[in-house]
Design a protein that fits this description.
With about 160 residues, the protein is mainly α. It has one domain. It contains 5 helices and 2 strands, in the order E-H-H-H-E-H-H. It has a two-stranded antiparallel sheet. Helix 1 (about 5-20) packs antiparallel against helix 2 and helix 2 packs antiparallel against helix 3 (about 80-95). The two termini are about 45 Å apart. Keywords: Coiled coil.
């Protein structure tokens, strides 16, 4: 399954907070959280490398083409290049297929009874299977109508 770095990193934050609250029990839920966290954390370094590459590409250069750095070793940027860099990093962070992982879905009975709703929404797609969206009555009707391959329009 694929998701954005934003969603994946948010899942890790929520999952780690839940793991702190969970007792040391070895449950299906805890195992699933740890499995998906591990998969995502394995790709964090790759994300960091991509960010550095974007920063380097947009960094200011001197007249010899050498990258300029400040006293702390950070890249320096011209205003327009910094704005372009920030846009590229935002695009990378929010791109829907930025990170790939194998979800570890657990059944409803394996979820903690005190799982907060605000946390639950961040677990969907990672350790909680997404609910199938039910079709509206109009969509059901449209899908039930017969179709023909050769539709005629405008009286032709």
């Amino acid at each position: 399954m694929e998701t954005s770095y934003k969603n994946a990193f948010r899942f890790v934050d929520v999952a780690q907070a839940l793991l702190k609250d969970e007792s040391e029990e070895d449950t299906k839920f805890v195992a699933a959280l740890n499995s998906v966290i591990e998969q995502i954390n394995d790709q964090r370094e790759e994300y960091g490398k991509k960010v550095v590459k974007i920063q380097r590409k947009h960094a200011a250069e001197d007249k010899f083409g050498c990258i300029l750095r400040d006293d702390r070793g950070n890249y320096r940027f011209k205003k327009d290049q910094e704005e372009a860099m920030e846009a590229k990093i935002d695009e990378l962070f929010n791109h829907e297929s930025g990170i790939e992982f194998d979800p570890e879905y657990v059944d409803e009975e394996s979820l903690p009874s005190d799982l907060p709703k605000h946390a639950r929404k961040w677990l969907v797609g990672f350790v909680i299977a997404p609910a199938e969206v039910e079709q509206t009555p109009a969509e059901k009707l449209l899908n039930s109508l017969p179709t023909t391959k050769n539709r005629q329009s405008n009286g032709e």
